[in-house]
Amino acid sequence: MATAPSSTSSVITLTINGEKYTLPVDHRTTLLDALREHLDLTGTKKGCDQGQCGACTVLLDGRRAVSCLQLAVAAEGREVTTIEGVAEGDRLHPVQQAFLDLDGYQCGYCTPGQICSALAVIEEHAAGWPSAVTTDVHPEAGPPPLTADEIRERMSGNLCRCGAYVSIVQAVARAAEARATTTTTEEAVA
């Protein structure tokens, strides 16, 4: 049931996981609440609701964003990827598979945000973006080795109440290695 726009609400169209959704929202509605309450996409979790825990991390145009601090109206025209859009049909994404294989899930509450963040971390690293612990930040140096310290620093905005950090770091490393191997194979074939 769509309501007419007013000075405090709008009808917006969001592109989420490749599908378009049109919905009326109050201008103060966060992207997190639009996903969970309006669209029933409950994989993205509400943790602290203050941008501090990372449980609500989604990808906006491929970049990490804590959806509890992102207004839904500001996400219009951008590509939103939630945990529901990560797998390819019934086949888990390599990051999801690595989390499963290495017991990075634990209770699972933070996992959707951890996985979305890990996806961005792997792409940021591959693109050569430095982190706070990168020793050589010159662009010609290329991507730094993706050490445990690099992964921990890059994932530091995502908290795990169960303390599964060792497994999470291992899962990100395994998925990054799989991505690098796939990319190298694809380049060799081309």
TrEMBL record:
Sequence ranges assigned to domain 2Fe-2S ferredoxin-type in this UniProt record: 10-86
Gene3D superfamilies: 3.10.20.30, [2Fe-2S]-binding domain (1.10.150.120)
InterPro entries: 2Fe-2S-bd, 2Fe-2S-bd_dom_sf, 2Fe-2S_ferredoxin-like_sf, 2Fe-2S_ferredoxin-type, 2Fe2S_fd_BS, Aldehyde_Oxdr_Iron-Sulfur, Beta-grasp_dom_sf
Xref: Pfam families: Fer2, Fer2_2
Sorted UniProt keywords: Iron, Metal-binding, Oxidoreductase
Keyword field contains Glycosyltransferase: no
Alphabetical list of PANTHER family matching this protein: OXIDOREDUCTASE WITH IRON-SULFUR SUBUNIT (PTHR45331:SF2), OXIDOREDUCTASE, IRON-SULPHUR BINDING SUBUNIT-RELATED-RELATED (PTHR45331)
Protein name: 2Fe-2S iron-sulfur cluster-binding protein
Organism of provenance: Streptomyces luomodiensis
Taxonomic classification: Bacteria, Bacillati, Actinomycetota, Actinomycetes, Kitasatosporales
